[in-house]
Design brief:
The protein has 308 residues and is of the alpha/beta class. Helix content is 32%, strand content 25%. The chain folds into 2 domains: 136 residues, NAD(P)-binding Rossmann-like Domain (Rossmann fold), CATH 3.40.50.720; 163 residues, 2-Layer Sandwich (Dihydrodipicolinate Reductase, domain 2), CATH 3.30.360. The strands form 3 sheets. A 6-stranded parallel β-sheet has the order 5-2-1-6-7-8, sandwiched between helices. A 6-stranded mixed β-sheet has the order 10-9-11-14-13-12. It has a two-stranded antiparallel ribbon with strand order 3-4. The longest helix is centred in the middle third of the chain and has 17 residues. It starts with a strand and ends with a helix.
Length: 308
């Protein structure tokens, strides 16, 4: 018997986790949807049955074999260590444990071998990081990487349900904001720091990564313009061949590309507008659904490998 708790089941990512579990036929026998106090008592449907959402508390996690958490950093820090101590396996979508050296930070297509030791707590990376490293890893394996620069174009849904609702509120919300999160002493936004540090941890490289993260008025789907410098001389045709054969990626070619609207509701990371910038440089566009591969799907893929 596999009992699965979805912590944060009423949020954008939590609801997407439930869809992924159902669509992929995840082998669970009991679902326990959990949410913060204000959402307790709500009902949701899963596999044709209604489930009552329980209030998130330690006792509700006690019988869980697996916890998929997307209720925010504070809830994860408070509840997940208790769940792990009680025998649960936890996959956390918040930033609470991502940079903890004892907690693996995993994108299964990139560093899934980290799950072979069956850790009881695994961190799901930031949405912008997941789609970036999915493309960087095959390039690293083929040519080596010496530096990465990236500009992100992140949808309103990345800021949560309230931000998504506000997108359709007044014309003033239709703006582009080049600072996602507060700025630190080095004038880097919180999202930029996450992306840079998480990329290095996942790839296992002391890699120079420079990011500028921008919030844009789109519903779902993050875009990224990426420039990489490779250690070896880079052949464009071979680079495209490498990307085309990489797991979880769809190559749209040198001139083709996918927009955030086109990737909404899909599972693949799309790569397009691929071109060389010198003998050791490559520039390309990346787009992915931030709620699916950027969060919920990646967490479910981690769980599938852990419990498989």
């Amino acid at each position: 018997m596999t009992t699965v708790c979805v912590l944060g089941a009423t949020g954008l990512v939590g609801r997407e986790m439930l869809r992924c579990l159902e669509e992929r036929g995840f082998p669970l026998t009991r679902l326990v949807p959990l949410a913060r106090e204000g959402d307790g008592g709500r009902r949701l449907r899963f596999r044709g049955e209604e489930h009552v959402v329980e209030r998130a508390r330690p006792a509700a996690l006690a019988a869980a074999d697996l916890v998929l958490a997307s209720a925010g950093r504070d809830a994860s820090r408070k509840l997940l260590p208790l769940a792990c101590a009680g025998g649960s396996t936890c996959v956390d979508n918040s930033s609470a444990f991502r940079m903890d050296p004892e907690v693996p930070l995993v994108v299964p297509e990139v560093n899934g071998e980290c799950l072979d030791a069956r850790p009881t707590l695994v961190a799901n990376p930031n949405c912008s990081t997941i789609q970036l490293v999915s493309v960087l890893e095959p390039l690293r394996a083929a040519f080596g990487l010496s530096s990465v620069q990236v500009a992100t174009y992140q949808s309103a849904s990345g800021a949560g349900g309230a931000a998504l609702d506000a997108l359709y509120g007044t014309p003033e919300t239709l703006d582009v904001v080049p600072a996602v999160g507060p700025l630190d002493d080095d004038d880097r936004a919180e999202e930029e720091v996450k992306l840079e540090r998480e990329t290095r941890k996942i790839l296992g490289l002391e890699l120079p990564v420079d990011a500028l993260c921008v919030r844009v008025p789109t519903r779902v789907g993050h875009g990224e313009a990426v420039w990489v410098r490779t250690e070896e001389r880079m052949d464009l045709a071979l680079a495209c061949e490498v990307l085309e054969g990489a797991p979880g990626i769809r190559l749209d070619g040198r001139r083709g590309f996918a927009t955030p609207r086109e990737v909404e509701g899909t599972d693949l990371v799309r790569v397009g507008r691929v071109r060389r910038t010198g003998e050791h440089g490559l520039c390309f566009w990346v787009a992915a659904d931030n709620l699916r591969k950027g969060a919920a799907l990646n967490a479910v893929q981690i769980a599938e490998r852990l419990l498989g």
